[in-house]
Write a structure and sequence with these properties.
The protein is α/β, with parallel strands linked by helices. Helices cover 40% and strands 20% of the residues. Strand 3 (41-44) and strand 4 form a beta hairpin.
Amino acid sequence: MKILHCCLANFYIDGYGYQENILPKMHKIQGHEVSILASTETYIDSKKIGYVGPSSYYTESGIPITRVPYKRILPHFIMRKLRIYSGVTEVLYSFKPDIIFIHGLQFISIIDIVDYVSNNPETKIYVDGHTDYINSAKNWISKNILHGIIYKWCAKKIEPYTQKFYGVLPARVEFFKSMYGISKEKVELLVMGLDDSSIDFKNREKIRSAIRNKININEDDFVLITGGKIDRRKNIHLLMQAVNELNISNIVLIIFGIPDDDIRSEFEELLNYNHMRYIGWIKAEESSDYLMASDLAVFPGTHSVLWEQSIGLGLPCVFRKWEGFQHVDLGGNCAFIENENVDEIKEVIMSIYNNPELYSEMLIVSTEQGIPNFSYCQIAKKAIEE
């Protein structure tokens, strides 16, 4: 089948491990003809959101991508919220997709897709959602105007033509229903996961040893890992403080990613190379090797795609507890931090470190439940099932 992945509600970043990167790749591997329609919004130098010019090229996976610009009818700061694009209709009629997978519905130009499907009713539509009440609708204007009126209009326009609306977290399933009024019969959970297309599970121990040797970590060290976007809401600085205060010789923390400017000085002050290995920014596929070299992933702040990636690798985890994020709990694979404070982070880490039997049980559940249920190979198939 011909599948068009539509990424116009947000940025599209080449080479990252987000769902909009991995699903097209998986669909191509599974034999479909795939193309991507994206905005010009992206990360510049892997640091800050910015814009590139409209263009057409191929991704690292050999998938054609077309980036289309905003129409110049209103000031840019308004257009980046309304998201009215030039060139959407032309791409649709040129590619003639059998399936359009829409990654986020928050763009006015969704009406171009509605018009196309009205004239080509055999085309199937699937929509996923990455918005919830933690990352969106946080002030009156955003909740009542942007989401409550404008984006709800987008949702109701596309709803009659949509097979399924997929929330990628339970909280995002609820957001579809409560904010946009989408029929509950059309909404399902489609978890994010691990790009397992090139994971060498058979050589996991060799990878573990190689990475540990590379960054000077002993085989018997208890290795924590965290990373991704390093901002204040991720609370990585609190985890660093906790590890420093524990001051246990064989507990080592691996950190990857680039800190935001507003937390950089604090981050650098907390770096303690006796207990930490900071490896900077790495590609998504490299992060899997570092995760496999670790014993426990720790994410004490807001959600990241690394949560699901860690679960998909069979790695025991510690997560900050949030309402509507219960999908990460597979019945013993993880522990939760209830509050954002250093003492509780230390307590949770030590409860696992001091209890080898508990850790072994977490590892068993992580391996038996996490690896099969958070595989993007399987998720990609489910995403376009009728």
